[in-house]
Amino acid sequence: MTLLSEDQSARPQPCRLPEPGKHISTSLYPTDCIGSKEYYMESEECVFGAVEPPRRSRGRLILHSMVMFGREFCYAVEAAFVTPVLLSVGLPRSLYSLVWLISPILGFLLQPIIGSASDYCRSPWGRRRPYILVLGILMLIGITLFLNGDAVVSAIVSNRSLKSTWAIVVVMFGVVLFDFAADFIDGPIKAYLFDVCSHRDKERGLHYHALLTGLGGACGYLVGAMDWGHSILGQLLGSEYQVIYFFSALTWSIFLTVHLFSIPEQPLSKDPHASDPLPPSVLRLLGSHSNGYGALAKEPVSNVGPASIPDPRPRSFSALGEANSVTSSAKQPNKEAQKRMTFRSMMKAIINMPNHYRYLCVSHLLGWTAFLCNMLFFTDFMGQIVYNGNPYAEHNSTAYATYERGVEVGCWGLCINAASSALYSYVQRFLLPYIGLKGLYFVGYFVFGMGTSLIGLFPNIIATLILCTVFGVMSSTLYTIPYNLIAEYQLEEEELLKLRGSIGSQRGCGVDCAALTCMVQLAQIIVGLGLGTLVYMAGSVIVVVISASTMSLFGCIFITLFIRNVD
């Protein structure tokens, strides 16, 4: 009750629009909406005041961020068990890399289209939430097949050879489906936050996202590190994997539901029967959108009156929804634009993006490449380099037992990483006024690069576990700073349009978030294709941390030279 009352009190009051059927005289404009000397500013406030996102309470933002806890919880479970599950069903080692490549390749090809499509989604439930719901269900199906595929196939198929083949197919499909949906869902979640929050609340929301991401990862690794096989739940549900699936499915279902009902989302289109005819000048104010960066071509709207009124609102906010709900003629251009969406047009929009967006994507690619180089192979590094174990030794040998012990300690190191990520996401708020977004971006890359360098030079157990905290600094940086920069860039463009008084429209934030997420998938492809070859050529897993350190320090240089500072 407190949450709702706080949001409603902050909501701006809409202006009074003419009743249908009444004659509208120009003398009404100075008193209701349009003054003779402040035509532009008062018109903007009148028309857009009702759709400006209100300030959100802390409780609302935390409820909105709960989905990141559930997503990272499931991610941690997958990271801890994907190797033993795949090997237990008999997957050949030659096909193991294929599992990590299919999902990012699909994501890199389809992510921009999904992001742009969500910018034009006309569901009455909102633009982002339908996509989040569908992808959330796909995540649940994927983790179900991943952790239960072997048991289900064993119960259905009796032939031993067919059972092994089908188990491999079902488990691989579950892993690919889960990765695909979990990677895709990040873009709509961020765009949902941007749509329903004011500029200051976007920053707060991203910090809560990073905080709960770290906590979710820590809880996921802790659940995976426990021995559930001999517990009461293990005996009741059948095996350790079923217990872990129970916790994962329950956590994801609850937090996804909380997220979807956390903050109301303004739909892009409203009931056409509820739309009242408006005077031509207001129609011109609402409907005049020229093609800007990332916007697709559409039919021009005829201007009525002596002057055109610019629309300074970004396409990512619900002001465009208000414009499209006025008349059917205002809706039609965007319907045509949606029909013309193709992968080629979206790639062209990304390639032709302004330099500061392109540089941000490149730095994001460098950061994620460095981060994944370390994270995907860290437990193997602990087992082979830090503990001097041998994964290829006999399973009853001391060398293999030592390797397994190193892998277990590596999981605890990843838990430390998740906890430090949550802590640093809170510390970022205090550092931001002193060093700014670009400074935080540089610090995250630099600390990670130096930490991985020290781990490679001094592979000591205690030192390595302590330095796992720098992984959390990098994780929190990658999950927050680039999206904060996007919000700042969009705010600058909005202010610039206001100062110029020109007609223009901005790129939808769904496309921007999708472009950043594409860099994550591209980094996975690069790591999946290149790092295994480097390890084979070097003959040692130590090349993993060296590669991570090198890419991170390159990212530091790139941030210093090319990322534009935001005051």
Automatic annotation (TrEMBL):
Subcellular location as annotated: Membrane
Sequence intervals crossing the membrane: 97-118, 130-147, 167-185, 206-223, 243-263, 365-387, 464-487, 508-529, 535-563
Record field: compositional bias (Polar residues): 1-11
GO cellular component: membrane
Entry annotated with the keyword Transmembrane helix: yes
Membrane-protein topology: Multi-pass membrane protein
Lineage top rank: taxon: Eukaryota
Residue ranges, annotated region (Disordered): 1-22
Alphabetical keyword list: Membrane, Transmembrane, Transmembrane helix, Transport
UniProt xrefs under InterPro entries: MFS_trans_sf
Pfam families, sorted: MFS_2
Recorded GO MF terms: sucrose:proton symporter activity
Protein name: Solute carrier family 45 member 2
Naturally occurring in which organism (per UniProt): Perca fluviatilis (European perch)
